[in-house]
Amino acid sequence: MSSPPSASANRPARLADALRAKGDIRTRVWRDVFAAVPREVFVPCFATHETGPRGTEYRLYEGTDPAQRDAWLDLVYSDTTLITQVDERPVEEAVTAGGGVGQATSSSTAPGLMARLLEALDVHDGHDVLEIGTGTGFNAALLARRLGSEHVTTVDIDADLTAKARRRLTGLGLAPAVHTVDGRRGWPGSAPYDRIIATCSVPYLPYAWVEQTREGGRILANIAGASTGRWSWPRFVRAPRGAGSSPSGRGSCGHAPVSPRSVTSGRSTPRRAATRPPPPPSAPTFCATRGSRSCCSSPCRTCGPTGRATSTTARSPA
Ligand SMILES: C[S@@+](CC[C@H](N)C(=O)[O-])C[C@H]1O[C@@H](n2cnc3c(N)ncnc32)[C@H](O)[C@@H]1O
């Protein structure tokens, strides 16, 4: 039986309150933003996954199917990652009703992790933000609701995803700038940014992002450990030009190595950052302060998880 339209009305607020109770949302302002943006608009169809005998197997949920509507809504407003693309095809094409296999290439990240990242991004009124990895558009909607659409730019390498995200955002009266581009280039057209957040993982920080960040601005990126196989979300702060270098310890600045600190474990994980390509000698340095563990985001499509370019297909703009 399908739910009446009003049944979903307070679900965003209930999810926001649950995330606040768990500590994923720490501030009132983000609680209110999560309560105000309906996730269901961004995930009309998705798959969940589990590991079966054939590897990762997907199960499709479609909000338009009356028989699935309640289960679909329950998942939309749970702390679950929802897969929206498999093998670079819309999930409803790649995964039949009976299930399917393949590589997830886009998803709506679990709201709890989204909340932790948005809190860690530490945005303030008037900040300009660039998001790498538009995906469904839900994170861009949260940012636009928080800062105003004119302060938000979001890019994705996949034109189908950006077109859908733009339509959904418009439907909610939000109009952040949405562009189709290889996010490793950032988006110089709206730079400089106070904050850059990457929702796809990269093995190193593309230097374009550093160049497009204001001095004192921050970059929050999911760095996939090319050598260690580990994932983390270090947060980099672009230091003023000419800032001194002190490569050891938290909060130090230097080209590398830097020592991001895990928010959850408190362990310091030395790693090299922004060393490929190396910044020019006169470039400003930046330092990593802290990050948080856990990741469910897709790897950068052009770098892949190992840092080597994996694709030069038409998806990459010339
Ligand atoms: C976890 S999803 C993003 C979730 C999204 N922020 C949301 O709220 O739905 C990661 C996205 O990164 C995109 N992506 C992967 N490599 C990219 C690249 N080189 N440049 C831009 N976007 C990329 C994928 O197409 C995918 O949509």
Q: What is the CATH first-level class name of the largest domain?
A: Alpha Beta
Helix run count: 8
Largest sheet entry = 8 strands, mixed
Query: SSE order in H/E notation?
Result: HHEEHEEHEHEHEHEEHEEEE
Mean pLDDT: 77
Q: What gross morphology would you assign?
A: globular
Quaternary state reads single chain
Strand runs, count: 13
Distance between the termini: 49 Å
Uncertain spans: 1-5, 226-231, 244-296, 306-318
Secondary-structure arrangement, i.e. CATH architecture of the largest domain:
3-Layer(aba) Sandwich
Please explain how this structure is put together.
The protein has 318 residues and is α/β, with parallel strands linked by helices. The protein has two domains: 5-108, no CATH class; 112-288, Vaccinia Virus protein VP39 (Rossmann fold), CATH 3.40.50. It has eight helices and 13 strands. Strands 6, 7, 8, 9, 10, 11, 12 and 13 form an eight-stranded mixed sheet that branches. A three-stranded antiparallel sheet has the order 4-3-5. β7, α7 and β8 (177-180) form a beta-alpha-beta unit. α1 (11-22) runs antiparallel to α2 (28-36) and α2 crosses α6. It binds S-adenosylmethionine (SAM). S-adenosylmethionine is lined by residues 106-109, 132-133, 135-136, 138-139, 155-158, 161, 182-184, 199-200, 297-298, 300-302.
